Amino acid sequence: MVSRVATRVENAPIGTK
């Protein structure tokens, strides 16, 4: 279930990339 995490990261890019 990485979809939830990916969605949160894309919705709130706090510097995860």
Strand fraction: under 5%
By secondary-structure content and strand pairing, the structural class works out as: mainly alpha
- Given as residue ranges, the uncertain stretches (5+ residues, pLDDT < 50) are none
What is the tally of beta strands? 0
Mean pLDDT: 61
Give the biggest sheet.
Answer: none
DSSP helical segment count: 1
- Give the C-alpha Rg: 7 Å
- What is the H-and-E element order? H
End-to-end separation in angstroms reads: 19 Å
Helix fraction, binned, reads 55-70%
Gross morphology is: elongated
Detailed description of the structure:
With 17 residues, the protein is mostly helical. The protein is 59% helix and 0% strand. The chain is built from one helix and no strands. The longest helix has 10 residues, at 2-11.
